[in-house]
Sequence to fold (90 residues):
Amino acid sequence: MQEIYLKNKKIFQKEIGQIVKKHRLKTGKSISLLSAEIGMTKSMWADLEKGIKDPQLSTLWRICEGLELNISEILKELEDILGRNFTFTE
Fold:
């Protein structure tokens, strides 16, 4: 069970990172600028985009504010990519 969780957590983090990066690039803003706007370190933002970090919901909310998105938009994209049957458990 732990193996499935760890595998799927990596997939989840990678996809969230790609979604955030896609939207950041659409804004034309740098990691430095956006992270400063929302009070986040550049390294934390970069790690999130690389799929290294698993953001807390409050962090993801702040990121969405910086990207001028509703959190539901990011979560919907994530669900579309991962599928409705994506799970962290067996």
Remarks:
- The chain has a mean pLDDT of 94.
